[in-house]
Amino acid sequence: MWGFYFNELIRSLPFFLKGLYMTVAVAGLSLVFGTIIGFFGGIMRASRNKPARMIVGAWVDLIRGTPFLVQIFVIFFILPGIGIELEAFPAAVIALTNLTASFITEIVASGILAVPKGQREAATASGLSNYLQLRFIVLPQAIRSILPPLVGQYVLLVKDSSVVSAIGVVDITRVGWLTVQRIPEGLMVFGLVGLLYFAICYPLINLSGFLERRMTVASTKL
After folding, report:
1. In whole angstroms, how far apart are CA 27 and each of 1, 86, 120?
2. Three-state DSSP state, 198
3. To 5 degrees, how large is the angle CA 153–CA 100–CA 157?
4. CATH architecture of 2-221
5. Cβ pair 172, 197 in contact under 8 A
6. Using CA atoms, how far apart are residues 179 and 4, in angstroms rounded to an integer?
């Protein structure tokens, strides 16, 4: 019986590869948009503008303090009630981008605030504008502490993307649920699902560890 199920699973591989492509597409787009929004959000979160800090802080707290499943349900099921209808794929990308951006905002803000205040004071005394201080003084130093947790957040992003299957996106997890209805050997089916997620996450885990070691060595040499 196991041999029969295994052969059926092999025949289902093209279906799993399509699910893998969908997972990479959703996670990849969310990664790009979430990083861009998160960097701007982090700069605002660490700025001297109190209203901007409060607005960004409230958004971050709201997103980080509520379940992602609830957020994606609101976007996909509740927004149509006020006239905003989205297909499953864009709804998934928007929800995952929003989640990712909130976490990256905190990572970037923490990196910026970790730069010694004396650096900014010296830059201000030299006549540099806030923009030039940020570009040439603050961000080059903050990036050392930002990169390792940033890549680690990308790993969490890939794993969180499994939730989008709840609104019908045919990602790896959704393919697993559809396949297990035909091949009732859950361990075998979801073992393959886990391996596919691992194939995406493992390079990112190694990259995060590599960057952390490099940044630690760089900091030691300074």
Report:
1. 36, 18, 36
2. helix
3. 50
4. Orthogonal Bundle (1.10)
5. yes
6. 14
Report percent pLDDT > 90 for the chain.
Answer: 59
For residue 80 the two structure tokens come to: 């149509």
Q: In the predicted model, what is the mean pLDDT of the chain? A: 89
Query: Distance (Å, rounded) from C-alpha 118 to C-alpha 138?
Result: 11
Radius of gyration, CA atoms only, the chain: 21
CA angle (143, 139, 59) in 5-degree steps? 85
pLDDT at position 218: 56
Q: The tokens of 6 are what?
A: 């295994």
Give the residue extent of every domain in the chain.
2-221
- Residue 80 contacts residue 72 (beta carbons within 8 Å): no
Residues 6+ apart with CB under 8 A from 115: 137, 138, 141, 142
**124, 61 Cβ separation under 8 angstroms:** no
**CA 128 to centroid of chain Cα atoms:** 34
Which two structure tokens, joined as six digits, stand for 9?
Answer: 């699973």
Residues 81-95 have a mean pLDDT of 93
Output the six-digit token pair for 67: 């379940």
Give me the DSSP letters along 134-193: IIIIIHHHHHHHHHHHHHHHHHHHHHHGGGGGGGT--SHHHHHHHHHTTS--HHHHHHHH
